[in-house]
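Researcher: Please translate sequence to structure tokens.
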Amino acid sequence: MKQFACGDVVPGCARTFTAPDDDGVLAAVAVHARDDHGLAAVPAPLVAQVRASIRTAA
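Model: Translation complete:
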């Protein structure tokens, strides 16, 4: 399982995401970015930051 904490990239955001793989995390984060952060599209540099912050869940 993989995990990502949005606060690692967006200070103050407490949302976390868990999925079987990186692509699953990225899909959930894209919906969150749109719905909660107002991003119609996630810029490539932000995707890279998210990818770099995804960890293996304990």
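Researcher: Any highlights?
Model: Residues 14 and 53 are 14 Å apart (CA to CA).
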